[in-house]
Prior knowledge:
Layout: H1 2-5, H2 7-13, H3 24-44, E1 48-49, H4 51-54, E2 56-62, H5 68-77, E3 85-89, E4 93-98, H6 104-115, E5 123-127, H7 129-157, H8 160-184, E6 187-188, H9 190-217, H10 221-224, H11 229-263, H12 269-302, H13 305-348
Helix pairs in contact: 2-11, 3-8, 3-12, 5-6, 7-8, 8-9, 8-12, 9-11, 9-12, 11-12
Amino acid sequence: MAALSGIGGRLYRGETSINFIAKRRRWYAFSGLLIILSAVALSVQGLHLGIEFKGGSEFTITKTGVTIAEARSAATAAGITGETLVQKIGNDKVRIQTGALSSFDAVKTSLASSFGVQIESIDTQLIGPSWGKEITHKALYGLFGFILVVLLYLTLAFEPKMAVAAIVAVIHDVFITVGIYALVGFDVTPATVIGFLTILGYSLYDTVVVFDKVRENTKSITSTGRVTYSDAANLAVNQTLVRSFNTSLIALLPVASILFVGAGLLGAGTLKDLSLALFVGLATGTYSSIFIATPILATLREREPAMKALHKRVAQHSNAATLVKSETTSSVVVSSDTKTSWARGPRNQPKRKRK
C-alpha cells in the first residue's frame, strides 16, 4: 500500500513513467475499433429518436399494479399501430409513446376504458413532425456552435495544434457515445442532448488540464535541448494521470448511481437518457484526453522543423553520452588488467640460486 500511495509523486517527478506517446499506435487502433463498432451499430440499428425529435403522441396513465404487458394489450385494443414504446415509471405509472395518430381523442378514450380510469386523469402530449424537426436542427446547431466556439478559444488561449487535437478527441468521444446509444437502443431525447453537451465540457476540461501541463513542460524546450517534445508531453501526461483518474472516479460514482439505481430500479426514463450519456461520456473523455489528444498533439508538433532539429540534437547528445560512457568503462577495464599483470610480474621471474 505504501508503494501505491506514493505512485503519484513518483509519476510527477519522473521516477516512474508510462510511455503513452510511444505506444500511440495501440491507442489509435483501439479507438479505431470502437469507432468501427459504433459505425456498424448506427448503420444497422440506428438511433431510437424520441417523440420530441420525430413527432408523435404520449399517454401517461396513473394506476397502481399495471404491467407493461397489460399496457401493450390496451394500446393494441385502442388501434395503435406501428412503433410503440411502453415504459413503466415507478410503481403506479405507465407511459405509452406512439407515432403520429389520426384519431388522438378516440385512442385516449379507449385507453381510459381499458385501464378503468377517467379520461381527464390521463396526461397527454402531442408533438407534430415539424416541431420535432425544429428541435433536431436546434440541437445540431448548438453542437456545431459549441465546437466552433471551443476551437476559437483553445486557439487563442493555447495554440492551433492543441485546439485541433482537443476537437478530434471531443468528436471521438461523441461518436463512441452515440454508437453505444444505438447499440443499447435507448431513446434519444432532449435530456440526451444535454448529456452530450455536458460530456463535451468535461472532456475538454480534462484535456485542457493535460495541455496546460504540456505547455509548461515545453516552454523552453528548444533552448535547453535535453528532451524531445514527445518526451516532455509524455511527462505531462504522467504528472496529471493520478489527478485525471481521481477526478473521473469521483464524477463516475454518482452518475453510476443515477444510471443503475435511478433508472434501473426506480424506472425513471429521463434519468436513464441523461445518465447513460454522462457515464459513457465521462469514461471516454478521460480516455481520450490521455490516449488520444496528447499523442495527436505530439505527432503534430514533431512535424515542425524546429522540433525535428531538436530531435536530432537530443539523439546526438544521447549517442555522445553513450560513447563517453562506453570509453570510460573500457579504460577502467584496461587499467585493471594492466595492474593485475604488473602485480604478477615479480612472481613470474626466475628464482636466484643460493650460494
